[in-house]
Each structure stands twice: as C-alpha cells, then as structure tokens.
Amino acid sequence: CLPFVVIENVMVSKNSRGLGIGTQLFSNLEQWARKSNASYCMLVSGNERTGAHRFYAAHGYQQMFGFRKYL
C-alpha cells in the first residue's frame, strides 16, 4: 500500500483570491507529495463550496464520493 496525502481545511481569504496563492499552495503540496512518494492526493471539501470545487477541478482533481464518522 503506497502512502497518500490528505488535504483538508484549505482556504484563501476572499481579498486574496485570484492572485495565484491557491495555485502556488497546491503546486507546493503536490511537489512535497511526490518527493514523499505519495501515490495520490485526497482532497476533502464541503458540498456547499462549489467555487472551491471549480478551482480543484481546474487543477486536475476529480470529484469522488466519501464517508466520514466523527468520534
């Protein structure tokens, strides 16, 4: 089983959106993941964050379905 990366709780402030900060952040995360021999990145995002979902899709992330159980 290869390692993977979980990305959760990512947000760029409204005043800073469109400046490339999110793109650079994800580029750095993915570079680190590759160096760590991760097989993939898994991104967790709330259903209501449709703008963020468009950003993720534009950067190659595919929407999947998952489950969570709080303990």
Radius of gyration, taken over Cα atoms and rounded to an integer in Å? 13 Å
Succession of helices and strands: EHEH
Query: Helical stretch count?
Result: 2
Distance between the termini: 25 Å
Strand arrangement, major sheet? 1-2
**Beta-strand content bin:** 5-15%
Task: List low-confidence stretches.
Answer: none
Structural class of the helices, strands and pairings?
alpha+beta
**Count of distinct strands:** 2
Sheet with most strands: 2 strands, parallel
Helix share bin: 25-40%
Q: What integer is the average pLDDT?
A: 92
**Overall 3D form:** globular
Q: Could you name the key traits of this structure?
A:
2 strands, 2 helices, two-stranded parallel ribbon, alpha+beta, 71 residues
Describe the structure.
It is a single chain. The protein has 71 residues and is α+β, with helices and mostly antiparallel strands. Helix content is 34%, strand content 8%. It is built from two helices and two strands, in the order βαβα. It has helices at 21-35, 50-58; strands at 5-7, 41-43. Strands 1-2 form a two-stranded parallel sheet. The mean pLDDT is 92.
